[in-house]
Every structure is written in structure tokens, then in C-alpha cells.
Amino acid sequence: MYRIHAPNREYDGQVAGVEFHAGDSAPVESVPDYFRRHPYEVEELHEEADGEKPPRRTRRKPA
User: Fold this and answer.
1) pLDDT the model gives residue 9
2) What is the DSSP letter of 46?
3) pTM of the full predicted structure?
């Protein structure tokens, strides 16, 4: 699972089929290529042994 962070941290709306609220998406199963080609931050979510998913920032495109 992934969470995507928009460059505009106040953005509410939809981009490439992904809904954003306050600059963050809900967890998504896959990341459209659009977000990897533009300055969006893609965060990979990992499950821990107790079932919680701590955020892990894995990639950020330069502005």
C-alpha cells in the first residue's frame, strides 16, 4: 500500500484517479506513473507485527 503527498499540502481534489484531501491521498494499492514523473512524494506503507501500518517515506521527486 502507498500514500501519495501532493506538492501543494492544501490540495483537495482528484489527480490521475486518486483523491486528495489536505495534500494527502488515502492509501492506494498501486501508484500511477503520473506521480513518479511529477513532484509528488510517494510513501510506502508497511505492516508491523501488531497490524499497524507505520508510514515510511521511500521516494521524493525533485521539484
Assistant:
1) 95
2) -
3) 0.72
User: Which tens digit of pLDDT belongs to each residue from 11-54?
Assistant: 999 999 999 999 999 999 999 999 999 999 999 998 765 655 55
Q: In angstroms, rounded to a whole number, what is the distance separating the alpha carbons of residues 37 and 53? A: 26
Q: Give backbone dihedrals phi and psi of 26, rounded to 5 degrees, phi first.
A: -70, 165
Report the candidate in 8, 4, 1 with the shortest Cα–Cα distance to residue 41.
4
**Among all chains, which residue has been given the C-alpha cell 511529477?**
38
First to last CA, the chain: 24
Query: Among candidates 63, 28, 33, which has minimal Cα distance to 44?
Result: 28
